[in-house]
Amino acid sequence: MGKYHTPFRFQPSILTVFCFFAGIFAGTMWVNRMGAGLKEQLGVFGQAFLTGSTQPPSLELLAELLLKRSLGIGILWLLGMSLFAVPGFCLAAVYAGFSMAFLISSMTVQAGLMGVFLFLLSVFPQIFYLPVLAVLYIWAMAPGNKIHGGGFAVLLILTAAGAASELWLNPWFLHFASGF
Predict the structure, then answer these.
(1) CA of 143: how far to CAs of 13, 46, 85, in Å?
(2) CB 173 within 8 A of CB 121
(3) What confidence score (pLDDT) does residue 147 get?
(4) How many Cβ atoms are within 10 Å of 143's Cβ, its own excluded?
(5) Measured distance CA(145)–CA(80) in Å, rounded
(6) What pLDDT is recorded for position 39?
(7) Considering only CA atoms, which of 78, 101, 100 is closest in space to residue 88?
(8) Most confidently modeled range among 1-10, 26-35, 136-145
């Protein structure tokens, strides 16, 4: 090997970022390839959400959403302690990229350039999930997996805050933005 040549080392973070962008590409292509009828149906659902004609949030809905989000966080936590940490987080990155691209593309189809602003408003209250996912990723990629029981309880509290903001703040922000 040459003086300035360093051997290639596998970097799970590069693979995870690549998977995230692959999900973004796939989600964008999916919306662009959808038929006009499905795009129109997405528009109807978006209008119902923006005008507030959906059901008001309740504690039962919060419990359901909290169960879904906690289950996802728990699965990522368990994956992070297994041999499947890298493939599991890559699948999660593809799913996150696909979901975000699908949402922003369908909002752009519905509202034009205002769809990008609506997307940012709809994602902003869910900021509580970012540190949870970052900490889970750091724990998963660290050598020597530990259980991190107390830390995981704090992550579940942040997940509950994210679910509550997703349920109560998202509709308020989007309803407020639809007035413009």
Answers:
(1) 14, 44, 12
(2) yes
(3) 75
(4) 4
(5) 8
(6) 62
(7) 78
(8) 26-35
